[in-house]
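Forum: Protein Structure Q&A
Topic: Joint prediction for protein chains with partners

I've read a bunch of threads here and the consensus seems to be that you should model interacting components together rather than docking separate models afterwards. I'd like to see that in practice. Below is the full input, 399 residues plus whatever partners are listed. Could one of the regulars post the assembled result?
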Amino acid sequence: MITAQDKILHVASKLGLTSLKDMQASTGAVYDVDTDLSGQIFSNATRHGNPGVTNINENQFEVNEALLVENIAFYVRSTSGNTQNFQENYGSNAVIVFDLVIGNKRVMKDTPVFAAGSPYVFATAGKRYFIPEEDLPGMQYVPRHQVFMEGAGVLIPPQVQWYVQYTVFDVVTGAIIVPTAATAIGCYLFGTKVLLNFNTTI
Amino acid sequence: MASQAQKLAYVDGKLGAPTSGQQTTRIVFNTIEAPGTTSSLIFFRNFQGLSNGQTNLTQNRLDSSESLVIKTIWLAQINATNVLQNFGGFRSETISIIVGNQTVVKNLPLQFNEGATGQTFDRLHENAGVNASPNALATNLFQVVMPTEIRLLTDIVIPPQVAFEVRIDSDNNVYGAGAVVCALSGYGKIFSAGNSF
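Posted by a regular:
Agreed with the consensus. Here's the joint model:
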């Protein structure tokens, strides 16, 4: 089985990135929110507050930094800056259909993330929960909106732009649901990270 | 892929640090009292006035012959009435770990692993699906949220005698008048004299 490190080194070798293997291996995630309501996430990160809205300065990594994307997740950011659940804002009938584009190549194509809970996660079931206000046992499930990549994931190499293009639909009617500033869609990409460092002893 | 034990032995060997010692599971932790509202928290920097129940180190480095692989980052926020809160209150915040003069974890977001939002980086974190809406009714005996925890994908080594710290950056998040706690957990080695004394 190919490991995350194997995949990074393989892609780096193919791209001629000979020094990537000497950098610091780490765990990382990048996130951004489509506060501009443009239908794209990460492409406008330059204009967003850090770390309030995003944790990147631009939608490409610097020299010798890379991210092997192993988990793609969607959430909602309220106007007050809180991270919220997609289903709790859009309802169980909503679905995000997204592409992940790296450079000029689409590496995830028309991928659905169902508000009701996606098929990619084991722990889609939330918690049976006691609701003190109503003094009775309530049942609330908080679905997860993540895509765990099969295999070893997809590498975003250094100095290549990437973005996520998405549309929110009503899965029942097929109509497009337009996000608002109060329900802006956010996305994070999580996985094995390569950090620029000038030695690799740690 | 190298195991935690292999990685630790490799790094210790590279640095010329002792590779003998008692193998164990190690958790180091540090507390910041009354953090208030701030855009920057730094754990493992200040040990002054902290009891053994607030930190298990006396300085921001491990003893000679002791080292640690970080596999899990754990963060908790407890308010002045001893109720566990969501760390930073769901607002965006990032964590960085600096070992020596090298950043080994860089701006890793925390808010997704706080539960209630239906997110965690890994598949099996059970608290990803917990709704914390009755949070206001929580007490110290009726806990409705869980601490924030992130399992790292790679083994990060803290070698002996090298200073380290954990930084949290945020957009002026509210951490309250209680305390915030950071713990780093993983495989480690502790000093073992054996028959050398």
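Chain A touches chain B through 56 residues (CB under 8 Å).
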